[in-house]
From TrEMBL, chain A:
<dbReference type="GO" id="GO:0000423">
    <property type="term" value="P:mitophagy"/>
</dbReference>
<dbReference type="InterPro" id="IPR036570">
    <property type="entry name" value="HORMA_dom_sf"/>
</dbReference>
<feature type="compositionally biased region" description="Basic and acidic residues">
    <location>
        <begin position="12"/>
        <end position="25"/>
    </location>
</feature>
<feature type="domain" description="Autophagy-related protein 13 N-terminal">
    <location>
        <begin position="126"/>
        <end position="277"/>
    </location>
</feature>
<dbReference type="GO" id="GO:0034727">
    <property type="term" value="P:piecemeal microautophagy of the nucleus"/>
</dbReference>
<feature type="compositionally biased region" description="Low complexity">
    <location>
        <begin position="349"/>
        <end position="361"/>
    </location>
</feature>
<feature type="compositionally biased region" description="Gly residues">
    <location>
        <begin position="33"/>
        <end position="42"/>
    </location>
</feature>
<dbReference type="GO" id="GO:0000407">
    <property type="term" value="C:phagophore assembly site"/>
</dbReference>
<feature type="region of interest" description="Disordered">
    <location>
        <begin position="1"/>
        <end position="42"/>
    </location>
</feature>
From TrEMBL, chain B:
<keyword id="KW-0072">Autophagy</keyword>
<dbReference type="GO" id="GO:1990316">
    <property type="term" value="C:Atg1/ULK1 kinase complex"/>
</dbReference>
<dbReference type="InterPro" id="IPR012445">
    <property type="entry name" value="ATG101"/>
</dbReference>
<dbReference type="Pfam" id="PF07855">
    <property type="entry name" value="ATG101"/>
</dbReference>
<dbReference type="GO" id="GO:0000045">
    <property type="term" value="P:autophagosome assembly"/>
</dbReference>
<protein>
    <recommendedName>
        <fullName>Autophagy-related protein 101</fullName>
    </recommendedName>
</protein>
<comment type="similarity">
    <text>Belongs to the ATG101 family.</text>
</comment>
<dbReference type="GO" id="GO:0000407">
    <property type="term" value="C:phagophore assembly site"/>
</dbReference>
<dbReference type="GO" id="GO:0019901">
    <property type="term" value="F:protein kinase binding"/>
</dbReference>
Length: 540, 237
């Protein structure tokens, strides 16, 4: 680790000449490969220094950002004299793990690839739950029209500007929502959520457009590539595009914190951060513990798909393909098995959980449906959508039983109505109400072998009426019952000509004539009833 | 004639601060808001302690920093790790706080207001017997108005609102600081006191002073007025 030792032990440019206006030799850099003082490298001397400054600026920036998300207050001391590690005249302590990881990334970095620091919130128990909060980018753009210089004044100026930018970074990191979050969650005792950091190199092909960047795939990206692939097609194979909007949610804010223009290129610091923290309700009470402490292991590099938070790809939507639940398009309600439509969110642990792998942290307003074979016998109710029955597993059976039930119901109701209309209130007779009719039908469905007591009443039009196909000869109850059993199942199977005459009347003209002729008999009967009512009853 | 490049930065913002109706309480929001903003600015405008060596060479010390939590607004800010500087700032801010809450400070509307300015300046040596002149090169001004809070909910909302507002100002300060702008050149040892405040043991900020006023017109010191005065003097020769 000679390189590491060299870097850590190098002095900052504190040995610069005091008055930059009166310099007479190039600034001396005590360390670094082959850059002794006055060695006569000419223009390259300044370039090497600036390269070094950029590298250390990157290292220190990562330290600042990651330490600010540790959830603890930071305090470092001012020193009247600088020591070797005090780059940019700022006392920024180095977290060893973060330093190592950043160095690794810098090693594999190609010349123009920016470094990105990702701060995200993840659930410890559920690895799929991840919310990216911030994406910090450090870019160094080597311009084409460089004007190499050896002026120590210019180089000193660059150094000071970088120092200023680091101070800005320190201030701004405390002013963002993620800082408050880290402090709050570090005080809680739950361990459900943790703040994670990740440092990786990225490619921003679109220099003017800061809507995202390309992130090289860890496995495929050729190590030690000298230059990033320029061809878009080639890029597509090796990178994946991280779009700020999809990763950070709508309403994300983008800020260019500042830039330092050097004779060899422009260093800039950018930030994109989430403003809408959409998480499940547990989040506000959940705690966070920062993972990046020396005792915890490194986090593997995570790849986020650009459409990770797209609702269309939510695992809940695709649950039906794997699990027991099924669904079609979102607009029509769908029922499964014998259950009626259940509009409940799928929550892990509930009886309705249909086998989806995890719950997404992003809230959705989609309807979720109960899985098939839900043990809810009480939920049984007639299903109205016959069209869906064809596609259901046991749809045929359900259809048949449904239709049987319906027809019996109709029949009974029809008969029941006729019963109640015609029969006068008679204490001796038993009247079937509609509810009882339905109950009767239900019982009948379950077992057709049971005998059911059917109380047959004298039908109004019996005995003297015409014998059209609908009427029954009440003199034979058994025959009546048999005929009822053999009655057509649905009304549709009845002949198009309903009983009665061509005009559709059940009461034919002949019947009417009969009624009118026997009107006196009916009147007498009614009078008899009234007089019976008026006879002194027992107890009044 | 000296080419004077100046920049006047003014943050004129309206801050709402609580004050209970019934009784006057110690509302520290004013001091916290002002401290946060001015410390953030000073942090950018402070270098390490200079140590001059032979042949005009010098070395610069290192600045530490510390996080300060505000108790009355939802905010944390960074300031130089220097107890002397913190003490100086407290002195100025509490003087302003008292002035603005003074019962005699009342405008016609019944609203209490005031403003406080942080000014960075250079000293210019003038021949004896005249005192050295102060030439400001950067001025930051905060304007404060006191607002009455009537309910607990309003106080909580105000607390959060102020925290966000001041946080945005800090980001704005960072953006302004990082633009290409004028900074005084690093002086030789003999002239360091004209540019820097060397009274602090561990840090070295640019020369600055803090003034406040509770009257409606803006503060008397302004860069523009100074420039005009210099031009007048120059032309008078």
């Amino acid at each position: 680790m000679t390189m590491a030792t060299a870097i850590l032990a190098s002095d900052g440019p504190e040995h610069l000449d005091g008055d930059p206006d009166r310099f007479d030799k190039p600034c001396s850099s005590p360390s670094g490969s082959g850059s002794g003082a006055g060695s006569g490298y000419g223009d390259y001397e300044g370039g090497k220094d600036i390269e070094r400054y950029v590298k250390f600026f990157t290292l220190k920036s990562v330290q600042v950002v990651v330490q600010s998300r540790l959830g603890k207050k930071v305090k470092t001391d001012s020193k009247p004299t600088s020591t070797g590690t005090d780059w940019f005249n700022l006392n920024i302590e180095d977290n060893f793990e973060v330093l190592e990881q950043t160095k690794e990334v810098l090693k594999s970095q190609s010349s123009e690839i920016p470094i990105v620091i990702e701060i995200s919130l993840q659930s410890v128990t559920d690895t799929n739950t991840k919310l990216v909060l911030e994406l910090w980018s450090i870019l160094y753009d080597r311009g084409s029209d460089n004007s190499p210089t050896n002026s120590s004044r210019v180089i000193y100026n660059v150094y000071n500007r970088m120092s200023l930018l680091l101070k800005s970074l320190l201030c701004v990191t405390r002013s963002l929502p993620a800082y408050k979050l880290s402090r709050k969650l570090s005080l809680s005792e739950d361990d459900e959520f943790k703040l994670y950091y990740n440092v990786f190199s990225a490619i921003s092909l679109f220099k003017g457009d800061r809507t995202g960047f390309f992130k090289p795939k860890v496995k495929d990206f050729p190590q030690g590539a000298s230059s990033p692939p320029k061809d878009t097609a080639e890029v597509g194979m090796l990178q994946e595009y991280i779009d700020y909007g999809s990763v950070l949610g709508n309403g994300y804010k983008f800020n260019q914190l500042g830039k330092v223009v050097t004779p060899y290129g422009t260093l800039s610091l950018e930030l994109a951060y989430r403003t809408k923290m959409e998480l499940s309700t547990n989040f506000s009470q959940g705690a966070c513990q920062f993972v990046g402490t020396p005792s915890t292991p490194n986090i593997n590099k995570l790849m986020i798909k650009s459409d990770h938070y797209a609702i269309e790809n939510s695992p809940l939507e695709n649950a039906g393909q794997k699990g027991l639940g099924r669904q079609r398009n979102r607009s029509t309600p769908v029922t499964f098995g014998m259950g009626r439509e259940n509009i409940k969110p799928l929550v892990p642990g509930s009886p309705n959980y249909g086998g989806s792998p995890s719950s997404s942290p992003v809230t959705t307003n989609k309807k979720h449906f109960a899985a098939a074979f839900v043990d809810d016998a009480t939920l049984f109710s007639p299903i109205d959508e016959e069209a869906d029955l064809d596609d259901m597993p046991l749809g045929n059976l359900l259809k048949k039983s449904m239709m049987m039930q319906r027809n019996h119901q109709n029949q009974r109701i029809e008969n029941g109505k006729m019963d109640t209309q015609a029969c006068p209130p008679d204490q001796n007779s038993k009247t079937l109400t509609n509810e009882e009719t339905v109950a009767l039908v239900t019982e009948q469905d379950e077992s057709s072998n049971d005998f059911v007591l059917v109380d047959l009443k004298a039908l109004p039009f019996a005995g003297g009426g015409s014998s059209s196909s609908g009427t029954v000869d009440s003199s034979d109850p058994i025959q009546f019952f048999q005929e009822v059993q053999q009655a057509p199942v649905s009304l549709e199977s009845l002949p198009s000509h309903p009983p009665g005459d061509e005009s559709g009347n059940l009461i034919t003209d002949d019947d009417l004539k009969t009624f009118e002729s026997e009107l006196v008999i009916f009147d007498d009967f009614v009078k008899k009833l009234i007089s019976t009512d008026q006879s002194p009853p027992s107890g009044d | 004639m000296v080419r004077l490049v100046f920049e006047s930065n003014r943050i004129v913002s309206l801050y709402t601060i609580q004050r209970k109706l019934a009784r006057t309480t110690e509302c520290h929001q004013i001091s916290e808001v002002v401290s946060c903003i001015f410390h953030s600015i000073l942090f950018h405008r402070t270098l390490g302690k200079f140590h001059y060596r032979q042949e005009g060479r010098y070395s610069i010390g290192t600045i530490g920093y510390e996080d300060i939590d505000c108790d009355f607004i939802d905010l944390t800010y960074v300031r130089c790790a220097s107890s002397a500087l913190a003490k100086t700032m407290n002195h100025y801010v509490s003087a302003f706080d008292q002035a603005i809450r003074d019962p005699s400070n009342m405008t016609e509307n019944g609203v209490r207001s005031g403003q406080i300015s942080l000014e960075f300046y250079n000293k210019k040596k003038v021949n004896w017997p005249f005192a050295a002149e102060c030439l400001p090169w950067e001025v930051w001004t905060i304007r404060i108005e006191i607002k009455t809070i009537r309910s607990e909910i309003e106080r909580q909302m105000n607390r959060e609102y102020l925290g966000e507002l001041v946080g945005e100002k800090v980001v704005l300060i960072a953006e302004v600081m990082n633009r290409q702008q004028y900074l005084p050149k690093i002086p030789a040892q003999s002239e360091v006191d004209l540019i820097f405040d060397t009274s602090y043991p561990d840090i070295q900020p640019y020369l600055f002073r803090i003034t406040h006023s509770t009257t409606s017109p803006p503060s008397t010191t302004s860069v523009g007025k100074t420039v005009r005065r210099i031009f007048r003097e120059t032309l008078a020769f």
